Amino acid sequence: xxxxxxxxxxxxxxxxxxxxxKGMAKKLIGVEADPAHRQKALEIGLVDEMMSVEExxxxxxxxxxxxxxxxxxxxxxxxxxxxxxxxxxxxGSTKHPVCEVVAHHPxxxxxxxxxxxxxxxxxxxxxxxxxxxxxxxxVICSKxxxxxxxxxxxxxxxxxxxxxxxxxxxxxxxxHAAYVSHISHITSxxxxxxxxxxxxxxxxxxxxxxxxxESTVRLAKSNPAMWVPIFMQNRENVLDVLNEHISQxxxxxxCLEKENYQYLQELIEHANGIRxxxx
Amino acid sequence: xxxxxxxxxxxxxxxxxxxxxKGMAKKLIGVEADPAHRQKALEIGLVDEMMSVEExxxxxxxxxxxxxxxxxxxxxxxxxxxxxxxxxxxxGSTKHPVCEVVAHHPxxxxxxxxxxxxxxxxxxxxxxxxxxxxxxxxVICSKxxxxxxxxxxxxxxxxxxxxxxxxxxxxxxxxHAAYVSHISHITSxxxxxxxxxxxxxxxxxxxxxxxxxESTVRLAKSNPAMWVPIFMQNRENVLDVLNEHISQxxxxxxCLEKENYQYLQELIEHANGIRxxxx
Lengths: 279, 279
Known about the structure:
Two copies of one chain form a homodimer.
Chain A: E1 2-6, H1 10-21, E2 27-31, H2 35-43, E3 49-50, H3 53-59, E4 62-65, H4 69-81, E5 87-90, H5 96-101, E6 111-116, E7 137-141, H6 148-160, E8 164-168, H7 170-198, H8 202-208, H9 211-217, H10 224-233, H11 235-258, H12 261-271
Helix pairs in contact in A: 7-11, 11-12
C-alpha cells in the first residue's frame, strides 16, 4: 500500500522505518511542515518523497498523523474533508479531544484513534529508530466509531509492528495516560528544575550523576512543543494526578520533619507494591 | 590480598564478583548477618567462606563495609577496635555521619570513606552483577583524615574496578548526593504511591506502562531497609531538596490551573537545560 506519514519526527519517522523494514509500504510519502526536518527526513531516507497534504491523500491507502496533538486537532477535520476510501490514524498521546473534534464529521468513520505506547525524550527525524514499537502496547480508542475495514487495517499495521492491541474508550485512555505517562513527564521536568535551581555546582551533578538519577530525569529532555499541548488537552486528569502526587510527596516531607521513620518505612513498603505491576 | 566483605548484598556482592574477575583477591571472606543471604552468597560463589567480623579482620588486608548506613554507624567503631594494619572502606550513600562517628577513634586513619555511585533497585546476594562499577564515579571523602597508604589502596581498588575518582569533603558529598540520588528515590516512591493510590485499574497500568513510566518509577522497588537510614542520616539536605521539588511541582500545577501555557512552556524549556548535564 501507499502510506503517507504526516510529521516525520520521532514517532512518524520510527513508523516509516518499521513500514519499510516489514515491506508494508510500496511507497512512503512524507508531509512535513519544518523545512529542516523535511530535508533531513529525505536525506536519511525515512520517506520516498515529500508532498503537501492535498497532493498526498488521493495517492494514499493509509495516512498516519504523527504531529503535536494541538496540530492534530486543526489538521484532522481538514484531512477528512479530502478522504474517501483512505484510512487515517493518529498516534497522539491524548485521545478524547481528537475524537471530539471529528465526532460529527461525515468522514469520521475513516479515522481510527490510536496511541502506540512508545516514545523517547528525543525528537525530530534523526530521533527515529528501528524496532521502536516491538512488544509495546497500542491503544485503539472508541473503535465503534470507525468503519470495520478501517479498524482492521489499523490493527494489521500495528500487529505487523509487533505491538499488542488494547481497546478502550477515548476518555478512559486519557485518564490512564495521565498516570502511566503524563505525570512521569511532569515529575521529571520538575526534578530537573529542582536540581538546576538549587544545585549550583553543575560539575558535581555531571560527575556524580548515577543511573538512578538519569533514569528519573531523562524525560526532562522532552520537547515542549509536543508536551505543552498534551498537558493542555489532558489538563483535568493531569491536575488530579499532580495534586495526588504533591500530597504523596508531602507525606514524605512530613515524615522527615517529624522524624517519623516508622511511617517513612511504611510509605516505602507501600511504594514497593509497584513490583506487582512492573516486572 | 585477602579481602573481607561485610554485607554480601547488591553492592558487596557486585564488588566480590569484580574482585574475583580482576584477580585482585587471593581470598574473599564474607560476613553476613542474614542466614538466608549467607547461604545464598556461598551457594553462588560470591565469597570463599563466611566468618564473624572478629575472625575475619586479623586475616584480612582490606575490609569492605557494604551494609545499610545505620548498621555502619554501629559496626565501624567496633571494627576499628580490631584493626591494626588493615584498610577499611565503606561504600554507603551518606558520608558525613560515618566520618563523625569515628572522628576521634584512635584507628580513624585506617578508614577511608567512599561512595561508589552505582546501584540498582534490587537487593540481596542475587542482585549482585558483573561489571557493575565500570565507568562510574566513586567519591572518596575527607581523605586527609586517612593514612596515605590506606587512601592509595582504596584508590587502586576502585581504579581496578574501572571507576573514576572524585574527591570531596563528607558534608559536600552528602549535599550533592541529596540532589543526584536521594531525591530521585523519594520522587519515585511518591510516584508509585500516587499511581497505586488513585489508579485502581492496575491491569490498565500494567498493560499501558511505557518505558517512560518504568524509568521514573523503577527506583520505587528499592529496599526500605537501605533507604530509611539514608534519609535519616541525610535528613536536612533531603528536606531542603524535597521542599524545592514540591515548590517546582506547584509551578506546574499553577500553570495548569490558570491555563498559563506560556509559562508552562518556559518551565519545560528550563528543564531541558538538564541536557547540558546528562549526555
